[in-house]
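It is worth pausing here to work through a concrete case rather than discussing structure prediction in the abstract. The textbook approach is simple: state the sequence, then state the predicted structure, then interpret. We follow exactly that order.
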Amino acid sequence: MNSDSDLQIAGDILEVPHLLQPPREHPATVAEFVGLARSVAADRTQWEHLVEYDATSRWYHRLRTGPGYEVWLLSWVPGQGSGLHDHGRSSGVLTVLDGTLTERTERGTRTLGAGAQRVFAPGYVHEVVNDTLEPAISLHVYFPGLTEMPMLPQSQLRPTGETPMACARRTGSEPVDAVTA
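Step two, the predicted structure:
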C-alpha cells in the first residue's frame, strides 16, 4: 500500500503563487454575487444600524456599489409590498435578512424566511410582500445596477394551473421562466 499523500507527491499548491488566481475585488459571476449577498448578510455591523421603518412607504438605502452592480437594503413593515414588477435588464439576488417575506410569481407563492435567497434573471416577474405582523429586512444585489423597475398589472400572474403559453396569450406577453435558484 502506498502511503504517499497528494501533498507529498505534488507539493503544496499554496507554495506556488503563480498558480493561484488573485482574489477579485468585485464579483463577476452569479455565484460571486450570491457570495457577496451572503457575506453582507452575515456581517450585521455593515447594515443593522442603517435600517429604518416607514409606515407610509417602503424604506430603502443603497448600501454599496461596484463596477456594474448595486447592493440595496430594504425594510418592510407589516402589509407593505413591492407590487408586481420586473427589474428591466438587471439580474439579481434577493436575500431575507430578518423576518419573513412572501414572494408571488406565476409559479405560485413562496415564503422566504431569514437567510432565504432567490436568484433571478432579467425579465423575472414577481411581487414581494410582508404578510406577517412583524417587520422584515431584505438585501438586494442587482447586476447591472437597477435602472428600471417596470410595474405590471396583477393579471400578469397566471392563475394556478394555467400554462405559460395560455398566460402569454391572455396578457399579450412572452412567457418568461428566469429563476435560477
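Step three, interpretation. The radius of gyration is 20 Å. Residues 66 and 137 are 22 Å apart (CA to CA).
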